[in-house]
Amino acid sequence: MSKLLEINDLHVQFNLIGRRVQAVRGVSLDLNVGETLAIVGESGSGKSVTSKAIMGLIPNPPGEIAKGSISFEGKDLVQYSEKQMQKIRGKEISMIFQDPMTALNPTMKIGKQIMESLIKHQGMSKHDARERAIELLKLVGIPKPEKRVDEYPHQFSGGMRQRVVIAIALACNPKILIADEPTTALDVTIQAQILDLMRDLQKKTGTAIILITHDLGVVANIAQRVAVMYGGKIVETGTLDELFYHPKHPYTWGLLASMPKLHAKTDKLLAIPGTPPDLSDPPKGCPFAARCPHAMNVCTTHMPEYTELSATQKAACWLLDERAPKVAPPETIGV
Ligand code: SF4
Ligand code: MG
Asked: How many domains does the chain fold into?
């Protein structure tokens, strides 16, 4: 598969008064044409900051890309000016956020909001843009699109609004769609419908998706590859099967154990005890050391390197060092 996006050693920091928060600390990732990559982690792991960096949406100041590159079709977006990024955003790379209400303008008809980007980026005439807006509403499963194109956001339910947001994001046939917790604000049945829709649309349009989520259940539904983030770093990455059936990092084990099971006798979730590290004073060693049940002395003093487990899977954990004691993943994991 050919690479659409290659992130290399990305460091993002926020220079606040009296402290510097190192939100992303050396992230390397790539995205192939047409695939879905999930970035999973708790809040504060750096997943949203990574996606904002791709979109050129890190506010500077206080934010700053201190190091690294984000190569999109061979061009480094880190070097792009705001003006250059405006040609990429919404056209080549689109983003949808958690809350559809904040993404939509409450005083503007739905159709007009879709048309705006078509007129701006594609130079469409008003008439053609309206036709295309109706087509897009149909594509995202909105009934009676000819009528609803002239309605306002408050006339739509939460799930329907998120469909509209997806229609806007896909209006210009972007090569990449970044979805940051796209279903978190919706109730469970609607969540499933939106994920189905995204999967269908991907098949139809070939758009690559970066899905940002804290929820492994969402990942299982849609992603082909997964990157697990913790403390500003990627701790493990692999195919969906590798991460679900052969996870190697204790943090991935913890995430899997805290996932609701389909056939479980109990609905008690095993949350990972403790809190994520303070990234204004990041740990010297493994970011997970303070919460890891398997932590050894070396873990607190030295950051583990990545161990390549297959052509597609790697993890950064001292347990993978040949000198470490053998530890089996807990029995609670598995789908
Ligand atoms: Fe746990 Fe050490 Fe592995 Fe970090 S490196 S996950 S602390 S065993
Ligand atoms: Mg977030």
From this structure: 1
Peptide bond into 62 cis (omega under 30): yes
Q: Which ligand is located closest to the Cα atom of residue 213?
A: 2
> What beta strand segments (E) does 107-239 contain?
176-180, 208-213, 225-230, 233-239
Q: Which of 272, 286, 305 to mutate to test the pocket of ligand 1 (most atoms within 8 A of CB)?
A: 286
Report the Cα 118 to chain-centroid distance in Å.
25
pLDDT tens-digit map of 36-47:
999 999 889 999
User: Whole-model pTM?
Assistant: 0.93
What is d(CA 170, CA 143) in angstroms, rounded to the nearest whole number?
18
- Give the ipTM: 0.96
Is 306 contained in some domain?
A: yes
Is 222 contained in some domain?
Answer: no
Domain that holds residue 290: 247-335
Q: Is residue 208 part of a domain?
A: no
Residue 35 scores a pLDDT above 80: yes
186-208 tens-digit pLDDT: 888 888 888 999 999 999 999 99
**How would you label 213-240 residue by residue, b for 16+ Cβ within 10 Å and e otherwise?**
bebbebbbbbbebbbbbbbbbbbbbbbb
Best probe residue, ligand 1, of 307, 317, 321 (max atoms within 8 Å of C-beta): 317
